[in-house]
Design brief:
This protein has three helices and nine strands. It has 202 residues and is of the alpha+beta class.
Length: 202
């Protein structure tokens, strides 16, 4: 019988639920460690001496943190409402913090997507297309009343690839349509482009 992996925090005997940099944590210690690191990096970016080496470390942590938090929120058994709320808060905090790291190139492109929102009382799904891509998100057309902060599951119809995203702004257009800006919470290069070779086209 395979041995159950345990949380590596001293004195904790709970089963591991996630990991950061190869270090295993139970659900409770993963959440507390993420909050501690997010607070540490939030303090660092406010300092005048914030360096590239710290930015690289921060990017690595945020990528791993969002990936693990997303996986835990979607697949962990016996996850109570408080833990789910904390994991969502971690994802949103990590996305906010990541804004300090980049202003990526933009590319005008049309890709077909399916958007799915599961917000209670306002669930919806639609097929739409992109207008502008960035490494960390996109500008899209949307028929439904999406609101800033809404979480979306985004599916590429050309490749089947999917990722979690958050609506960061909305703009009402004519005939009930709107444009929305989204940023990804758990994916670093959803569009699978070589961004070092992409010139901004907007």
């Amino acid at each position: 019988m395979a041995k159950t992996e345990r949380c590596t925090v001293l004195g904790c005997e709970k089963a591991a639920a996630a990991s950061l940099d190869g270090v295993s944590f139970c659900q409770e210690h993963f959440i507390s460690t993420c909050y501690k690191e997010i607070d540490r990096y939030a303090h660092l970016v406010r300092e005048a001496g914030f360096r590239r080496t710290a930015a690289e470390s921060m990017h690595h942590f945020l990528t791993e943190c969002t990936r693990q938090a997303t996986d835990l929120s979607q697949h962990a058994e016996e996850l109570d409402n408080l833990a789910r709320a904390r994991l969502l808060d971690i994802l949103l905090s990590a996305a906010d913090l990541s804004r300090h790291l980049r202003r990526s190139p933009r590319k005008v492109a049309t890709l077909l997507l399916r958007l799915h929102c599961e917000k209670p009382g306002r669930a919806w799904e639609e097929e739409t297309k992109t207008r502008v891509l960035s490494r960390h998100g996109a500008l899209l057309e949307c028929q439904h009343p999406a609101q800033s902060g809404d979480a979306l599951l985004v599916l590429r119809l050309d490749s089947g690839r999917q990722a979690l995203a958050r609506v960061v702004w909305c703009h009402q257009k004519e005939e009930g349509r709107r444009e929305i800006g989204i940023e990804f919470l758990d994916c670093d290069n959803f569009w699978e482009l070589d961004w070092s070779a992409v010139e901004t086209t907007v």
